[in-house]
Design goal:
The protein is of the alpha+beta class. It has a single domain, classed as Nucleotidyltransferase, domain 5. 38% of the residues lie in helices and 23% in strands. It contains five helices and twelve strands. The strands form four sheets. A five-stranded mixed beta sheet has the order 5-2-1-11-12. Strands 7-6-8 form a three-stranded antiparallel beta sheet, sandwiched between helices. Strand 3 and strand 4 form a beta hairpin.
């Protein structure tokens, strides 16, 4: 992301759309080394808390959105107890199908019971949930003036080909993220940048501790 791209951006939000778990975090552009989040997610029964939520999407029988993450898994389990789950769609671990099955924009993918729906719909609804949840968190913390203030970064695996990356970008745009506000970042590069920033922050903290120690010694 170039510096001039951030002129009108106040917040950078990163969405980690994972194979098994997903989550997000954000930072203010004038506080580059300070991160907010990731959101703490709780399972419906309160037995587990996590910084990420399962990449599980539950759709109603009419193919409209029902829930995502822990909530989706809990609801599907409750439906299954009374054998009311058969008409619902539960999608899990579908992200890497973009790579292994070379999915196109018009491809279908299977849910846990074998029913199929357009892959684009499944991915875009999942990303939309994470995007909306992230914006709500930003708004609740008093940082959001307008959705246009946010630059979204969506992580993708380094092994993905251009077709898979284009698919993910199209799904994010369909999810309501403006293409001009979207950047795809390779997961290894994102991790490397984080480690570099973390090292810089630790170095600054060490310098502050050293300076404080010297002041104490002078004071004595």
């Amino acid at each position: 992301m170039m510096v001039d791209e951030l002129d009108d951006i106040n917040i950078v939000a990163a969405i980690d759309f994972g194979t098994t778990y997903s989550g997000y975090a954000f930072s203010l552009t004038h506080e580059e080394l300070k991160f907010y989040g990731p959101q703490i997610w709780n399972s419906g029964h309160g037995v587990m808390s996590s910084q990420k939520t399962p990449t599980s999407l539950l759709l109603n029988p009419d193919q409209t959105f029902n829930s995502f993450g822990f909530e989706a898994e809990d609801k599907f389990a409750e439906l299954a107890v009374d054998e009311n789950h058969h008409e619902f769609y539960l999608f899990q671990r579908f992200k890497m199908e973009l790579h292994w099955k070379n999915i196109k924009k018009d491809s279908n993918i299977h849910d846990v019971s074998g029913k199929t729906l357009p892959a684009m719909e499944v991915f875009s609804l999942s990303i939309k949930y994470l995007k909306d949840h992230c914006l709500k968190t930003i708004c609740d913390r008093g940082f959001l003036r307008s959705p246009k203030d946010v630059k979204f970064v969506l992580t993708v695996p380094a092994i993905w080909n251009d077709r898979s990356k284009h698919f993910m970008r199209a799904a994010a745009v369909q999810a309501g993220i403006d293409d001009s506000q979207l950047t795809l970042a390779l997961e290894p590069e994102a991790a490397s940048i984080y480690c570099q920033r973390e090292s810089l922050e630790n170095m600054r903290e060490a310098q502050l501790i050293l300076a404080f120690t010297r002041l104490k010694m002078v004071g004595h």
